[in-house]
Amino acid sequence: MAGFYDFYDVAVVGGGHAGIEAALASARMGLKTLLITQTIDSIARMSCNPSIGGIAKGNIVREIDALGGEMGKLIDKSMIQFRMLNKSRGPAVQAPRSQADKILYSSLARQTVETTPNLYTLMDTVVDLLTTESDTPLPPAESSQSGEIPGEFTEKDILTKAAKSGKRQKLTALVTERGRLIPVRSVVLTTGTFLGGRIFIGEYDAPCGRVGEQAAFGLTQSLNRLGFTTGRLKTGTPPRILRHTIDFSNLEIQAGDDTIVPFSFEDEKVDRPQVPCHLVYTNAKTHEIIRENIGRSPLYSGKIHGIGPRYCPSIEDKVMRFAERERHQLFVEPESLATDEIYLNGLSSSLPEEVQDAFLRTLPGFENCHVARPGYAVEYDYVEPTQLFPSLETKRVAGLFNAGQINGTSGYEEAAGQGLVAGINAALYARAHKELCGDLCQAHSGMGQVPASAEPNAFAFKSHFTPEEIRHFAEISEKETHAVNELLENFQKEQGRSNFHTIPEWEPLILGRDEAYIGVLIDDLVTLGTKEPYRMFTARAEYRLKLRHDTADRRLSEKAFKVGIKTEAQFNATKLKYEQVEEATELLLKDSSAENPGFSPIVWEIAQEDAKYKYYIEKQDARVAKMHKMEHFHIPADFDYGKIPALSGESRQKLEAVRPLTLGQASRISGIRNSDIMLLMVYLK
């Protein structure tokens, strides 16, 4: 019976910004794709700031568009204010930012997902991943060093049979809370703040990923049983205020730009109503109320153990850490044209609701404000990202990819960029898997699948498990693993295939640090890991002159065409554009005061920047060329670092933990010295 017992090439878990990019990429590449989300109505919901773009983030959005993603198109159709940041500075640090109509944005995203061929949605919760052992050795010391990440947990007592094999595992199926057992070739986990999520408002806490929305439980325990190290991170959001209860005459207006630059390279113009934002400042009375009640903040009472984003602290953190500051700037931002709620950017808080009400009314213009939704903190599980390859595939489990906050990042743009890369690579892996292993088959009703709540002893997924329940979960998982693996292996044998335990060979899409901010982001994560929510800044990119937001299509369109996510017509249009840019640049290099002889404004503007920064770009290109020699110097996956006697014990541990694929990646591991790299190069030769 098709449907309930169906199978898919790629399954994406989570319908946030990472999830929709992963699912759309896979489907557009021709793979049968399933997007599983707990609430279809909240696809691509803006949980926090109702904006897209910003410093470095705007560059990521344009890179997503150049690679065939959707975020740029969605914000162009839903923006309600546009600003180009850093207009007075050089093009390498300029970036577009837009306020979004968050309700329209989510609605458009859902419509896109539901009308894309090859893409199907399912409202359910994934609670288990099933694997088999492969014939490929497991990379040595693939996880982080013990005790390095907040809330670290590694399951040692109840590892699965495949996890104990000493081989890489190969993904075979997933299991949902309602008892669906779905054979798959690859899975992308984009769980956001829902994985083990818990929200905090003063003394109140509840198992939620967002206020009023149930968190996801069971999957973290599954990941632990597969051998993954997980930790806990924290983020937060401000209260939402009803607009009509604010006196805007006391606020400073912040208008948008008259000229709107579309985020998508395929959009020539944006025709959307534009509305202003406003500025307001905290004061001594605000700070006094916060200090008097700081002991009631879960951040200071010890209830929260996860580490929050350093560059986006809560208002209580700002007041306590920067006691000398007399005021803090806040941005009053509309959430949508269809709602009266406004967002107070910079006022994230988890203090009790009555305290939030009190300090809000100390702000000018907010004396009579009404809070529709309180601010809160949310703590959630993440998978330490050095357990991933640069493709975002996990080292332990072939066919399993992670993207977004499960990798320790913060922000819609960072999540979407990872989701797009993970989705492309999951599709490339699935293509190779199909060629090697043939067709998948459906699970069937005789395999004993039942909802978790109907299991013996009324087993149910919840926020806390007893040791007995965890063992019971493991027993159920092993039975389901045996049943589905036996079915799939026998089915492949009937097709004349004997590759059930073989991991397919495939070539992933990996973006270099000189090619994209997304490449910098992923390389930082898988090489350095993170102990706090990671946020992208221009300062993290050493080749940012090459990573201007206006040239993302020049850098990435060919890659999108080669993997099959962009059409030949789209790629040829980009080629023609940059042939004209080169022609215009040559003209400007001969005469810097030359008038535009008839090129399009976009072509002429890019050419002017290229000509202006030609010398600096050439110097940077020379550094990139040197970097590439090291970057492409391959390190075997099973290289024995112990045979380098002059290598320090600390350096050896770090190299064995990360298992870098190249000398370039090895050189970026925190604490690895240049002398270590030279030693390594000698032994590799």
Describe this structure in words.
- The chain is of the alpha+beta class.
- Helix content is 34%, strand content 18%.
- α2 (57-66) packs parallel to α13.
- It is globular.
- The protein starts with 7 loop residues before the first strand and ends with a helix.
The class by helix and strand makeup works out as alpha+beta
Helix content: 25-40%
What is the 3D form?
globular
Average pLDDT level: 91
Total beta strand runs:
24
The largest β sheet comes out as: 8 strands, mixed
Distance, first to last CA: 57 Å
Q: Gyration radius, to the nearest Å? A: 26 Å
Determine the strand fraction and express it as a percent band: 15-25%
Counted by DSSP, the helix tally is 19
Low-pLDDT stretches: none
Please outline the helices and strands.
Blueprint lengths: L7 E6 L3 H12 L4 E5 L13 E3 L3 H10 L4 H8 E7 L9 E6 L1 H13 L4 E5 L2 E12 L15 E2 L12 E10 L4 E9 L8 E4 L2 E3 L1 E3 L2 E2 L4 H7 L3 E9 L2 E3 L9 E3 L22 E5 L2 H9 L5 H4 L13 H7 L7 E6 L6 E5 L7 H8 L10 E3 L2 E8 L13 E2 L1 E3 L9 H26 L29 H28 L22 H12 L23 H12 L4 H23 L10 H12 L1 H18 L17 H10 L4 H5 L6 H11 L1
Parallel strand pairs: 1-2, 1-10, 2-6, 9-23, 10-24
Antiparallel strand pairs: 3-5, 4-5, 7-9, 8-15, 9-10, 11-12, 11-22, 13-14, 15-22, 16-20, 16-21, 17-18, 18-19, 19-20
